[in-house]
Design goal:
alpha+beta; single chain; two-stranded antiparallel sheet; Hypothetical Cytosolic Protein, Chain: A; 3 helices
């Protein structure tokens, strides 16, 4: 009998709970760089987002992502995150 449970995480934008595997993890590494964690296992402070453009936009406009990661994100970082977000959502990973 398998008693393992599916990890549940909360989207920082819409606050909906979902399985960890269905959300995208954004991580702030020790060198203060921020990016998507495709494996979900990188060390560092992480936050989760749904795969909806509305959640990405809400996280950006409300500063929820910045609060969750405990850092400020400049315009260049947001541009990189938006590009990576669109690629990850299109590829389904």
């Amino acid at each position: 009998m398998n008693t393992s449970k599916t990890p549940i995480r909360t989207c920082v934008a819409c606050r909906q709970k979902a399985a960890k595997s269905t959300l995208l993890r954004i991580v702030r590494l020790a060198d203060r760089s921020v990016g998507f964690d495709g494996s979900g296992n990188l060390p560092g402070r992480g936050a989760y987002l749904c795969r909806h453009t509305s959640c990405f936009t809400a996280a950006q406009n409300s500063r929820r992502l910045q609060r969750a990661l405990r850092c400020d994100l400049d315009e260049a970082t947001w541009i990189d995150l938006a590009r990576d977000f669109n690629m990850m959502c299109q590829s389904g990973t």
